[in-house]
Structures are given as structure tokens and as C-alpha cells.
Amino acid sequence: MTPRKLAKDELTKDAIIDVARDLFVTEGYRSTSMRKIAQTLKCSHGAIYYHFKNKAELFYEIVEADFKKLDQELDDVMADMASSNDEKIFAVLYGFIKFGLTHQKHYEVMFLIRDEELQCQVQDKPNNSYEKFAQTIASLSAKQLSPNEIWSLFISMHGFVSHYCRSDIKFDDVKNLASSHARFLIKAIK
Q1: 42 torsion bin: left (phi>0), alpha (psi -120 to 50), beta (else)
Q2: Which candidate among 10, 41, 43, 120 keeps its CA 20 to 30 Å from the CA of 152?
Q3: CA-based angle 137:69:172, to the nearest 5?
Q4: Residues with Cβ < 8 Å from 184, sequence gap 6 or more?
């Protein structure tokens, strides 16, 4: 009988998710296999299958968790009763940029990985997240915004984040630019 592993050495879902996310971003979805994830974790691929039935389930769980995290950011802004609507709009725009640059690998999995096999399965997550963003901005804005104006806000923030993804730039390096960008976008919708 082999001795039981120490708790610190046990393979957890979180450890698998962290390694898989990195591999999905650096290697691509198709090139990442359960065996490759297991090799990186120095465990058997059977240990991965104990937690996830296949690579697609693992990927979907990552996407689901990452969008929940982003949605929670919106919920936190909306729950702040001490802030004005204008302050909340700034917090939403600035917070989106901060999230994307603080969690670059999460962001890439959420918005930037393109694979035909995944498109129909995960497309609802970004769409649902965008809808939540659009409804939040529309509810906070003093002026009635058109769908095109809200989409332009989102695309502008997405472009800012995408520009710095996969770089050595961290959020702290561009937080003043992020603040200026969010304020510029607010002026555009007033």
C-alpha cells in the first residue's frame, strides 16, 4: 500500500484549472491535452479525469468561473450605495480594464481564444456578460444611450485590455491611462 499524499501535495481542481488556463492561452485549445496538463502537474492523466470528464468540461468550467468573477465585479459596483451613478459608471469602466489586465490569462480565455470547436459552446458566456454590462450602463446613465453607444464603450475598453494582453505591462503600469480612458469614455456618453 502506498502512503497517502500530504494535503499540500494533493491535486485540486483549482491547481488543474490554473495549469489548464495557462496552457490554453500559451498552447491553444487544440494543442492542449489532458495528458499535457497532467505532465505539467506531474501527475497521471487519470488524476485529471477524476475531476473532469474531458478537456471540454474543464475548459467550460474555467470560462464559467472567470465570467462569474467578472460579473461579481459589476455586482459589487451596483451594491455600493454610497456612490453616485456617475461614480458607478466610472467604476464599471475602470474596473473592467483593471480586471482584464490584472487577470490577463482569464481574460484571454474569456474573450480571445478562438476555436471553432468551442465557439457554439461558450459564446453565450461573453454574450451574457455583455448584456449584464449593457444593462448596468443603461441603468446608470442619465442620458438614454443607444445600443451602438453602449457597444462602442465596451469595444473601446476591450481594445484597451487586448492591446496590453500578453505583454509585460501590468495594470499598475497603466492605471493612470486606464483612469483617463474611462473618463474620456464617460465624456463621450454625456
Answers
A1: left
A2: 120
A3: 80
A4: none
Instruction: Please give the Cα distance from 165 to 169 (Å, whole number).
Output: 8
The Cα–Cα gap between 52 and 6 comes to 22
Q: Could you tell me the three cell numbers for 168?
A: 509585460
Give the separation between CA 77 and CA 93, rounded to whole angstroms.
10
161-186 tens-digit pLDDT? 999 987 888 999 999 999 999 999 99
What is the rounded CA–CA span in Å between residue 167 and residue 144?
37
8 Å CB contact between 38 and 44: yes
Number of CB atoms found within 10 A of residue 183's CB: 13
> Rounded CA gap, 74 and 130, in Å?
11
Per-residue pLDDT tens over the stretch 69-105: 999 999 999 999 999 999 999 999 999 999 999 999 8
